[in-house]
Amino acid sequence: MHKMIIRVLLVEDSPSDAKLLRQIFTHAYQHELQMVHVERLSEAIDLSLAENNSQVNDAENANSQQDKFDVVLLDLGLPDAVGLETLKEYRAAVADIPVVVLTGLDDEELAMQALAEGAQDYLVKDQITIQRLIRAIRYAIEREEILNKLRESEEISRQALAKEQQLNELKSNFVAMVSHEFRNPMTTIRTAIDILQNQNNLDEVRKDVYFERVQDALNHMLQLLDEVLFLSKSEAAKLEYKPAPLNLISFCDEITEVLQMKATGQQNIIFNYEGDCNLAYMDEELLYCILTNLISNAVKYSPPQRNIWFNVICKDNVAIFKVKDEGIGIPEKDQVNLFQTFYRASNARRVQGTGLGLAMVKKCVDLHGGEISLESQQDLGTTVIVKLPLNYRGESN
Ligand code: ATP
Ligand code: MG
User: Fold this and answer.
1) 382 lines ligand 1 (CB under 6 A)
2) Looking at domain 6-128, which CATH architecture does it have?
3) Residue 64, SS3?
4) CB burial of residue 141 (10 Å; 0-12, 13-18, 19+)
5) DSSP assignment, residue 166?
6) Atom nearest to 346 CA in ligand 1
7) Which of 86, 110, 153, 278 could disulfide-link to 81, CB 3.0 to 4.6 Å?
8) 231-258 pLDDT, tens per residue?
9) Nearest CA to 295 among 331, 341, 327?
10) What is the mean pLDDT of residues 276-294?
11) CATH topology (fold) of 244-389
């Protein structure tokens, strides 16, 4: 498990103690142990950090074969630090090298406190034998390795738990939302069907009205289901980024045309572009999700017949999509939470929505290696800006 040579940093200001330890090392274990001796805490910290860095730089610097120290033997009474502070200061600066403290005969209590502060072991100076020293060093290294593994697995479990909690939260949010959001369209459908079934004297125009209501309610529920499915896919990391060559201009043109037709309040979507946007490499489905959600929001949260500006600027290998409206705006306190699932701003209650659109947009932007930002002022309007690399090949590349 261990490598052949163990590197020890001895931090000891007493020349006689240092000499003794050095002798033990040299005579008994010169092939196994390599010792570096310093007298001050500051030197020990500098050296430990420098050795750590030299390891990081090894890839660039083939000559530097220097490993980091495996263990530190730390005297607790140094010219620049005394008592437990010595250990605390060292551990604060260097967290990943095990420490064995060196104490005097009458310092057992201090030694115990040192163990509580993270030292792996202690040695009483006048009682050091070769066997004790070697055993302390080996145990300290082994304990540190076990501790590191424990920390790693704790971190993995912590992340898994956080993920699980997030999914649970999403699920319970979903249940709450389903009972709330699905109830309205279902009631609409039931009422419409009741009327269509039981009122024989309905004329064709009235019948059409009720059929249309059923149709709208169904569409709304299907859209809701699609959104939830999309998000659960992305939570389970099953949402993929599948880029392909894409002409941004005709793509954005089409989206504008479709959303313009759907804008029941006759808001006016004005599309403009700058730069060479013909040759992008992006995921069409994800980009569609981003743009339709942003433009639909701009339409939905604007009074009738207002303008909505949809600009695309391509330069320096980045596409900037800007959607600007003069709608109800978003109160400042709500702005930080908008990308959370089911979050809706306090001034949006009268407009229908579930608070899933921007959460989906954020996932799509992340998959594109892009960024999203938002500027908004209540009652004045909102501008959302999405920046995507024009040629993003995916995360692993
Ligand atoms: P849906 O899931 O149907 O899109 P939604 O529009 O409520 O529902 P999001 O698109 O996620 O959900 O937007 C979250 C909230 O952000 C909205 O509820 C609204 O309060 C606010 N918002 C988003 N875009 C705008 C905008 N252009 N103007 C004003 N408020 C907006
Ligand atoms: Mg929306």
Assistant:
1) yes
2) 3-Layer(aba) Sandwich (3.40)
3) coil
4) buried
5) H
6) 20
7) 86
8) 777 776 778 899 999 999 999 999 999 9
9) 327
10) 94
11) Heat Shock Protein 90 (3.30.565)
